[in-house]
Write a structure and sequence with these properties.
Layout: H1 17-28, H2 37-47, E1 53-56, E2 62-66, E3 73-79, E4 84-90, E5 95-101, E6 113-118, E7 121-128, E8 149-151, H3 157-162, E9 170-173, E10 178-180, E11 184-187, H4 190-208, E12 216-222, H5 230-239, E13 243-251, H6 260-263, E14 273-276, H7 282-294, E15 300-303, H8 311-316, E16 324-331, E17 339-342, H9 343-358
Parallel strand pairs: 3-12, 3-13, 13-16, 14-15
Antiparallel strand pairs: 1-2, 2-12, 4-5, 4-9, 5-8, 6-7, 6-9, 7-8, 10-11, 11-17, 14-16
Helix pairs in contact: 1-4, 4-9, 7-9
Length: about 375
Amino acid sequence: MTKKKDDKQKHVSVVTKKSLQFFEEYINNPSPTGFEYPGQKLWLDYLKPYIDESFIDNYGTAVGVINPKAEYRVVIEAHADEISWFVNYITPEGLIYVIRNGGSDHQIAPSKRVNIHTDKGMVKAVFGWPAIHTRNGEKEEAPALKNIFLDCGCTTKDEVEALGVHVGCVITYEDEFMVLNDRYYVGRALDNRAGGFMIAEVARLLKENKQKLPFALYIVNSVQEEIGLRGAEMIAHRIKPHVAIVTDVTHDTSTPMINKITQGDLACGKGPVVSYAPAVQTNLNKLLIKTAEKNDIPFQRQASSRSTGTDTDAFAYSNGGVPSALISLPLRYMHTTVEMIHKEDVDNVISLIYHSLLNIEKNHDFKYSK
C-alpha cells in the first residue's frame, strides 16, 4: 500500500543520544553573564571534532571555524550567558541582599535554591520568604528587589564572609535539565544555551555529511548578550563577517496572561520563527524562507518594532552594515528556571540553519536593491 501524500510524516530527530547527553551537561553547567568560561570550555570541547580551528576572545566569546582560509566569512551565532544575581549587601545577621546580573525575575525568586560562586567553591543558599501564616495584612507585599534575600544558614556577617562570600559574588539557580512528556526540554538557561547547542549541531551535521562550504564558517557563542549584546558587538568587529545568521529564543504566546495582540501568535511545536525587523536584511530573510519551504521545514513569522533585542542587531549595524537575519526558537516561561522548548522545534532550527548555509554561495550578494 502506498503512503498518501497528505499523511503526516513521522518526525525523525537530528539530535543524537550523544548530542543530548552534551546538551543536558551544557544546560546544567552554570554560565552567568561575565563568568561564562566553564560553559564555553564545555561547548568548545564538544565542537572541536567538527571544526578546523577555534579561539576565545578577551571577554570569553568562543568561536569555532570551518574552512578558515576562505576570504568570504559567514557567521552562525548564539549567546552563552544566563541571567543571574550579584551579592550586593550582607546584613549583620548574615542575610544577603542581591542585585540583577541581566534580566533576572524577582517574582520567581522566593523559595528557590541557589549556588553562590566563590573563590573557595560553591556555597549553597536559598531565597527566603515569610511564611503565609505571617502575611495576614489586607495587602500582601509582593516580591521585589528591595525585599528578596538569601539565607545561607549563617547568623552573622563574619560567618558569611568566612565561607568566601563577598559583595560581587555571582549567584545562579540550582534547577536542572529534564525532558517533559517526551516532548519538551525543560531547564534554566535554555535562553540561550539552546542556541549554542543548535549551532554546534549544525557544525556536526556539516562534518558528518561531508559538506564542503565555499566560504569560512564561524560558529560563534557570544557572551554578555543579557546585558546589552556586548559580546556580539566585540566579536563582530573582530571577524568582520559578510553574513550573519543569529539564533535566539522568542516567546511562546499560547500560555495564559500573554496578549497576542501585542506579542504576536507564536507557539512551541510549530517550527522556527523568522523575524521581520529593521536589522533583518530583506534578501537574507527571503533565503531563509525559501530554504524552509523547499525543505518542508515548518516555520512561523514574527514582527519586531524597532529592534529584535537580540545579537542580530549588533551584527547588522557593525562594519558598515552586515546582512543579518534571525531564526528564533519558541520558548515558554522565559527567564524562569523552567524554560520549555519543543524537541521538534530544536530539530527544525538546526535543519533550517544547516540547509540555509548550503544555499549561500561564495561571495553571495545580498544587496538590498536586488
